[in-house]
Each structure stands twice: as C-alpha cells, then as structure tokens.
C-alpha cells in the first residue's frame, strides 16, 4: 500500500431546491389560493474519521466530492426532498485546512469523530409563503441557495505515542521490528525507510503503545532536504521521543547535534518534547569506546541515556521500562492538569 500523508481536494455541498409557483385547482374549493411548496435542502459534506484507513491514497485519484442537490418543491404545499449528506471517510489523525485561507477547520483524531466542511444550501420558498392581504395570488417563488464550495488541504499526522528519530541508518527500523510485530524494510544503506512505520509494543499487562519510526531526517530536513520535511509533522502528535544515535558512525556527537537542531528549527514544540537518548549498536564497538561516548553524551545532555543493541537485544528491557515510566508520568500529569481545570 502506498503511503500518502497529504492531499488537496475540492468539496461542493448540494444546492437547495427551488420553490415553485402553484395554485390550488380543486373542484369544490373556490379561490384555492397559492400552494407552491418549498425546495429541499442540499446535502452537506461531512468528514468522518475511521480506523480502517491508514493513508490518504484515495484522495490522490479522486479530488472532487459533490453532494446531491435538494429537489424542487411541489404543488399542494409539498416540500421537495432534502438530499442526503455526503460522508467522506478519512484516517484518524487527519488535520483539515482551508486551502485558500490556511485556516485549520478541524483535527480528526478519534474514530467516529465528524467534521462538517461544507454546508448544504437551503431550499427556496414557494409562493404559498408570499400570501398576504394585499397579495392574494403571489406569482413568484425563491430559488434555492447554493451549497458551500471549498478547497481543502488534508494532512495526516500519525497517531503514535512514541517516536523513533535519528539519522538514516541509526537503527530505527531494526528497533521497531524487534520491539513489535512490524516488518519494515531493513538494509545497510541510508534511506532504506521511505515511509513511517508503525508498530504496537505490548506491556506485560497486555495493553499496547504505538511506536513510529520516522524516516529521512537529515541536516536541512525542516527546509525540505531529504525526506524529513514530509515526515517531521508525524512527530507532532508523539508524547515521547527516542533519539537513536549510531555509535559506529564517524561522529556520533555531530549526528546527535544535527537532529536536535532540526527539531528546534522545525518548531511546534518538538525540541521541548521529552526525550530518551539511546546509544545504539553497542555490539559493534569496544568497551572502552562505549565508556568514552557515554561520558561525552552525559556531558552534553541531561536527558536519560541508555546503551542498546537491537541486533542482540541488549538494553531493550531497560529502554521499555523507562518508556513505560515516562508515559505513566505524562498520564498522571495530564490527569492532574485536567482536575485543576475542572476545579
């Protein structure tokens, strides 16, 4: 399945049906008067979040979505039928923007959440509504109002609590494949991973947490270099970041600085997101080199630091324990904040 995380579409709500001009023509009703009915309401366009979709691929090939128009009114005061609303399913995690004004219209993060993006037009009034003492036989009716039309920009941001970040070949895909049932493509060359990979990591209690492997972060990613500009948005929803640094790289500290600079340059609070620093591939370095890099990084940052190896699974239990601890603390802090607001 091709992963598409942004799309631009046009939505057009249905027009309201026209009111009509009609008069009663019944045998035993003298001077029957006006009886033109109102037009029906046009259908609105509504987005609904669903867990059955994981990509915006469908919107790459179908760009125009139009709801049906309402029917015109009928004689004998009959109102025209209103059109059904047009329901469009989008993946959970879709943010909807007005493409012309850049206004954020809504953020669909949970299954079943709905967002009306175009209002259907009201039906026009029939001539029966214009009856008065001074006008006993009105011969005009109103047309239906047009439905709203909008250009929308859809952006999909993955719903994952933990994001794995690092330069290409830092070992993110290998780590998520070991911790979860995800089966990403893994190879020993940069940019093996071209799309974000999601994996559910289970606790001992049985409940799971979604991890996301964010690909393509290199220097200049926030400006569009590499793949990072397309995928940095997926980190926005994460609550905790695991920054993997490859200890077999030429300069691990420079690699760490590069990613930290990109998070800060991108903004949106990413550089302030809680982080765990994981020094990866310790199976491929000497013990004295490992001690050296530990000391160097501890002097650079105050975030929790762990040494791991996805290849032989060293340090992974300690990493997960720290992840669960962090997430539990974040949950407790969120509950406390919500309690204070309610009080």
Question: Runs with pLDDT <50, length 5+?
Answer: 189-193, 220-229
Number of helical regions = 6
Which CATH C-level class of the largest domain is it? Alpha Beta
CATH superfamily of the largest domain: P-loop containing nucleotide triphosphate hydrolases
Q: Which range does the strand content fall in?
A: 15-25%
Along the chain, the helix and strand elements come as EEHEEEEEEEHEEHEHEHEH
Radius of gyration: 29 Å
Task: Write out the strand line-up for the largest beta sheet, numbering strands in chain order.
Answer: 10-11-9-12-13-14
The structure class reads alpha/beta
Shape descriptor: rod-shaped
CATH architecture of the largest domain, please? 3-Layer(aba) Sandwich
**Can you summarize the main beta sheet?**
6 strands, mixed
Termini distance?
47 Å
Number of domains: 2
Helix content range of the residues, please?
10-25%
Q: Mean pLDDT across all residues, rounded?
A: 84
Q: What is the third-level CATH name, the topology of the largest domain? A: Rossmann fold
Strand element count:
14
Quick description:
The protein has helices at residues 58-61, 172-179, 228-231, 252-266, 287-300, 316-342, and strands at residues 6-12, 45-50, 64-66, 86-91, 94-98, 104-108, 114-118, 149-156, 162-165, 197-202, 208-213, 240-246, 275-280, 305-307.
SSE order and pairing:
Layout: E1 6-12, E2 45-50, H1 58-61, E3 64-66, E4 86-91, E5 94-98, E6 104-108, E7 114-118, E8 149-156, E9 162-165, H2 172-179, E10 197-202, E11 208-213, H3 228-231, E12 240-246, H4 252-266, E13 275-280, H5 287-300, E14 305-307, H6 316-342
Parallel strand pairs: 1-3, 2-4, 9-11, 9-12, 12-13, 13-14
Antiparallel strand pairs: 1-8, 2-7, 5-6, 5-8, 10-11
């Amino acid at each position: 399945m091709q992963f598409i995380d942004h799309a631009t579409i046009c939505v057009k709500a249905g027009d309201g049906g026209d009111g009509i001009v009609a008069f009663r023509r019944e045998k035993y009703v003298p001077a029957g008067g006006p009886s033109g009915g109102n037009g029906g309401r046009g259908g609105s366009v509504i987005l609904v979040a669903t867990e059955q979709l994981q990509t915006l691929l469908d919107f790459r090939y179908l760009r125009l979505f139009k709801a049906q128009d309402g029917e015109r009114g009928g004689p004998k005061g009959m109102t025209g039928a209103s059109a059904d609303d047009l329901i469009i399913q989008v993946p959970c995690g879709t943010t909807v923007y007005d493409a012309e004004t850049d206004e954020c219209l809504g953020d669909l993060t949970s299954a079943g959440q709905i967002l009306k993006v175009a209002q259907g037009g009201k039906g026009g009034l029939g001539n029966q509504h214009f009856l008065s003492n001074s006008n006993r036989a009105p011969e005009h009716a109103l047309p239906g109002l047009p439905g709203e039309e909008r250009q929308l920009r859809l952006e999909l941001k993955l719903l994952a609590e933990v994001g794995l970040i690092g330069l290409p070949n830092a070992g993110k895909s290998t780590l998520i494949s070991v911790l979860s049932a995800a089966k990403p493509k893994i190879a020993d060359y940069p940019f093996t991973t071209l799309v974000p990979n999601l994996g559910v990591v289970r606790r001992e209690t049985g409940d799971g947490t979604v991890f996301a492997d964010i690909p393509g972060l290199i220097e200049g990613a926030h400006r569009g270099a590499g793949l990072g500009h397309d995928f940095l948005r997926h980190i926005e929803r994460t609550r905790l970041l695991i920054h993997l640094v490859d200890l077999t790289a030429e300069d691990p500290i420079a690699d760490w600085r590069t990613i930290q600079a990109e998070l800060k340059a991108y903004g949106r609070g990413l550089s302030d997101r809680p982080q765990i620093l994981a020094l990866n591939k310790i199976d491929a370095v000497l013990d004295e080199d490992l001690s050296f890099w530990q000391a160097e990084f501890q002097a650079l940052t105050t975030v929790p630091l762990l040494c791991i190896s996805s290849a032989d699974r060293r340090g992974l239990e300690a990493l997960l324990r720290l992840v669960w601890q962090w997430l539990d603390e974040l949950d407790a802090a969120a509950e406390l904040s919500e309690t204070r607001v309610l009080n």
